């Protein structure tokens, strides 16, 4: 596109910072014009943030809520992924296994993960069990699908070369197919992680004792817009943190990929 | 015990509403220790022949026999060097070269020794821990060749191995191959587009025609090669020699003849139709 | 032509590959059979896992007499309306934004910081503000749908522009193309496959976010329907609702896939 040559990091930083600064000015201006109830001013947000961090709100401090939410989400995510990856590999490698499992997966796939919340509550009650169930389901499908696709789209020439050199059975699966599928598996993991986080926040909005979702809900009930913004920011920050963590892990796990940028 | 025998081999593909005959009955014998190059237009089936010798594809009728045994699957006694290198991207140079040995169950210490030897032989010293993406095309192909050679295969199959390399690297690799062959004689089936490459490297050049695939003719190079000691001369000299030029032109004419007769046949059909 | 490999002679006789669909069918039958049998024998509690005929009955009742204020169809149409509004808004704003970001670097520098921040906010986290600003009006769910569908539209469009070979642009410039021409004849067609892929992802996320929003802060719609069903412990209604949600989602995706296949066939754009 235009001016590709001048795409320097410094330029983007300058323009970006300027834009953000201008936006903040607008924010301060805007919040003094619009009724404070609907639209919090930066001071309100900072005050709410301070309160949440020190005295606590809705049953706990910022740390307690955030850790609680993250713990639940990551637990559900880990359990789901631990099941989805082997299953996906098995489905990709064995046509027979795929024929058995696929119909069930195709039936479950189209149902949005959040739609499982009501039935989870009926089955598991209002406690953490229902949440973990929903998160498990949410995280399971993308990783499964991507693992399966990754296995099936490994370069056939690589498989031929490995077979020619004597690889077969277990060796072929673990030394060739799994590493070959890893890029796609990680794509699935990323999607699963973001979906898990979204599902957790939603589940907590429905009903919880701790967690960022609960903070959001109570802040909404109390009509405390500053706190709402703080909670939203925490949700975003935690989500970003976990995703960046996953990306780092991805880079460590696959040293053979040409690094982008 | 490494001769190849293609005995009345055909290959038919079942397409949506018709059968496509890729190879007409082909009978070809490659003697032990012989270097046979196969040239032909795109789609003439030369790669299919190679893959059948490797056990990656199977004839619709007829038999492919290597060393007195019919081919039923791929194996380390018949390694292929691919045009796209086909190195495992997640293994280092040493990992890739040692892969076949690992599959064979050779213990790590012995493996490391053999791999180190081939790293030196193929001029890859200093790159032992590099990943394929960090290597140039020529180096990647060296790794692929080392990977094959280390298994001491009875039969070496090469599918346009230097096709993805630039012209200079290509010539270097051709000379390298001659050198490796002079150290140890192997049976080689070498598919290529380049007539020059075929004549420079081979004992016999098989010229194929396409649609359907068949052998048009076979040109023998071995006598001249031995008489004029090509293997001990630099490539620039050989390219200028009269004998080389004559052989090259002969093969070229055969290839073009195949193409011309196909075009002639078509224009004759058209004139009959009108 | 693809290399279609052939089986070796000694394996050609028994071709067991055709048996696969049969295997699938057999498994599905086994599962359904177990379900029916357990229901008949009473080993399954109907309030936890209702028998298939209860679910069918629920669907019928929902369609005819309704639940939670409306019939099934009305709920679905209400949900679809909100979905369509939020999704179209996201596409109308997001696609041009992605194109502009791809076209000129300054726009990219300005938008990116905001985008990176807002992108990570789970769509449902907007619920409190949605309630605050729109009350129980239709604006609330539309905001949620928009926040879910917006990011994929922009990102995929932007990536689509990145995939265009700069050589094409240079070649067109030397042929005298103006910026407008470049945008219409190269940028948009070149990014098209990515844009369509982005729309499919957006639609899926939009539908999901909508359901989530309706679960918590709505008085109609399929999400509202299933949460009401849960409140009254009507498991069959909840399951019937889930099935309809799934079916609608599949139909939306299938329609988009059809449109994208037809369009890309006509356009013959380069593979993304």
List keywords for this structure.
heterotrimer; A: 261 residues; mainly alpha; 78% helix; 0% strand; globular; disordered N terminus; C: 272 residues; MetI-like fold; 10 helices; 75% helix; flat
Helical residues, percent of chain A: over 70%
Helix content of chain C: over 70%
Termini Cα gap of chain A: 18 Å
- Give the SSE order of chain A as H and E letters: HHHHHHHHHH
- Name of the CATH first level of chain C: Mainly Alpha
Strand element count of chain A: 0
Radius of gyration of chain C: 25 Å
Describe the model.
The complex is a heterotrimer of chains A (261), B (274) and C (272). Helices cover 78% and strands 0% of the residues of chain A. In chain A, 44% of the residues are buried. Chain A starts with 8 loop residues before the first helix and ends in an 8-residue tail after the last helix. Chain A has helices at residues 9-33, 42-54, 62-93, 95-108, 116-124, 128-152, 156-164, 169-206, 212-221, 225-253. Chain B folds into 2 domains: 4-77 and 157-273, P-loop containing nucleotide triphosphate hydrolases (Rossmann fold, 3-Layer(aba) Sandwich), CATH 3.40.50.300; 86-152, no CATH class. Chain B has helices at 46-54, 93-97, 99-104, 108-121, 137-149, 167-183, 195-201, 222-227, 235-240, 242-273; strands at 4-14, 19-30, 35-39, 61-66, 69-70, 78-81, 155-159, 187-192, 204-209, 214-220. In chain B, the strands form 2 sheets. In chain B, strands 6-7-8-3-9-10 form a 6-stranded mixed β-sheet, with helices on both faces. Chain B has a 4-stranded antiparallel β-sheet with strand order 2-1-4-5, with helices on one face. In chain B, α7 (195-201) crosses α10 (242-273). With 272 residues, chain C is an all-alpha fold. Chain C has one domain (52-271): MetI-like fold (Orthogonal Bundle). In chain C, α2 crosses α10 (235-267). Classes of the chains: A mainly alpha (261), B alpha/beta (274), C mainly alpha (272). Chains in contact: A-B, A-C, B-C. At the A-C interface, α1, α4, α5, α8 and α9 of A face α1, α4, α5, α8 and α9 of C.
